[in-house]
């Protein structure tokens, strides 16, 4: 939520606590000022205003009275009179009290009046340099330099605006209440967000989760997630690419470990199951909130105020291990985290582009949204301010970008909307400061090849170049459906696995699939004679050893053999009909033999469980009449020979 943060208020208490002398010697003015101070501390702002106006009537050069009166107007949320009071103070007292110009510039910066603030800071700088010895203390000099830097950066950002035309998502999403913290599935068709609702107690509001589906490009009416919402606060959620796993925050729950904890819920069919507290090491006795999960839900970023950080709130990351346990959260380090508040992380579906909010860098004021990219497992590129007018002098937080990198979602109360905070979207073009890698997706349906029954299965997407598992998830156990995201301009190996079945192998890239297309994945039961074509096993022309891009396929075979220790298989090599038959037979036999030996050497598969044979061009699966068909015939198969 937005917060009014002003320099003036903090200054008043410093003046009250430590000043032994006032700038005024007028006893009536001092008496009125001190009475105004008492009323200010008691929150009687109307009375304090009257007292301070009396003080200034008795001494129009009483600088402390101006400061406190500006604070009164700030508490009354009357920014016009606050600024007028400080400007009058500068006009009347600026010569003797140069610091009053700094205070005016500070408030102008906070209000987004960057040109006015910069003009006052330049005047301040020139006046201070005229003194042979500086009148500023070391702290004051640091404060001035910090504000000068921030204002300079804000003006620079304002001079190079990014394309930003927000559109309200409309009455089906936004209500008369605060609606915020959007999250979106990879197909851009499911939106989940938080709404702050009134309760029977007018002083207390309650955060609940709502969801909406898109039909024909329009958002349907949102509905509450009744199986998740309780009488406590649920919000700040993140959802996996397929919309089946959600991480979110609950505060004050009976089974909580701290003030706020991170929970997880799974969607089975159309229903969300009972949320589970993630427990240690994710949650602690401190504050954990604002989770953001990777596309497959196996990497989790979140905000915490645990004491091992660099500032007040820091961003951490944890990884889900094969045993189902989360690793100890690691701080993202000083490149991302600052000595101030760093929060609201959002990791894009590409897995490398991170957006977050911080007040730790010079920017437009208060918290700005920054973007960075992951360089390797532990390091990040220098964060960049996402620019004006996405960032303003107000607090900005939680930017969400769709998978394609063409549309952003955010919440704001800056524009005319349905209520307080509303959710908006906006189009992204090449002026966007930190653009994510475009991500597309494959919609899959996993089923039994014989019975056609839908199956829940493990879905693994690996980068062919690096063999890194970039996505690991499960198809829905009732519908067999899954959504697999992958970045453009790269090749991936898709493996689908389920106990009692042969694994499925497919090579996927953007050139093969479009977002709206569904891919059927039939799984063969482990029956003698059933086989799978190893579509991610690659060989150079006339070579018997496989290319390094084949490692993910070898891993899939190795997993299958270890999970099914009684199964025996044949590695069968095939070629097209180009060249003579004898050569083709020798080449295919050499390739099958090499693969089998690699399985024995690399994965410890017993030799007696493996046979191999090259069939040359004798068993084509397609006519050898086109380049595409000949490519299909150049294949390696895994055939069940014994259960």
Walkthrough of the structure:
With 643 residues, the protein is α+β, with helices and mostly antiparallel strands. It is elongated, with a radius of gyration of 32 Å. Mean pLDDT is 91; it is low at 1-19.
The end-to-end distance, rounded to whole angstroms, is 61 Å
Portion of residues within helices:
25-40%
pLDDT under 50 segments (min length 5)? 1-19
CATH architecture of the largest domain: 6 Propeller
> What is the alpha-carbon Rg in Å?
32 Å
* Basic shape: elongated
Integer count of domains: 3
CATH class of the largest domain reads Mainly Beta
Chain-averaged pLDDT: 91
How many DSSP helices? 11
User: Beta-strand level of the residues, as a percent range?
Assistant: 25-35%
Give the helix/strand class: alpha+beta
CATH topology of the largest domain: Neuraminidase
- Write the CATH homologous superfamily of the largest domain: TolB, C-terminal domain
Number of strands: 33
Instruction: Sketch the major β-sheet.
Output: 5 strands, antiparallel
Topology:
Blueprint: H1 7-18, H2 27-41, H3 45-58, H4 63-75, H5 79-93, H6 99-110, H7 114-129, H8 138-159, E1 167-168, E2 178-184, E3 190-198, E4 205-215, E5 218-219, E6 223-224, E7 233-239, E8 245-251, E9 260-268, E10 271-272, E11 276-277, E12 288-293, E13 299-304, E14 314-319, E15 330-331, E16 342-347, E17 353-358, E18 368-373, E19 384-385, E20 400-401, E21 407-412, E22 422-427, E23 439-448, E24 458-463, E25 469-474, E26 481-487, E27 492-497, E28 504-508, E29 518-523, E30 531-533, H9 551-563, E31 568-573, H10 581-603, E32 610-614, H11 627-633, E33 636-642
Parallel strand pairs: 23-29, 31-32
Antiparallel strand pairs: 1-22, 2-3, 3-4, 4-5, 4-6, 7-8, 8-9, 9-10, 9-11, 12-13, 13-14, 14-15, 16-17, 17-18, 18-19, 20-21, 21-22, 23-26, 24-25, 24-27, 27-28, 30-33, 31-33
Helix pairs in contact: 1-4, 2-3, 2-4, 3-4, 4-5, 5-6, 6-7, 7-8, 9-10
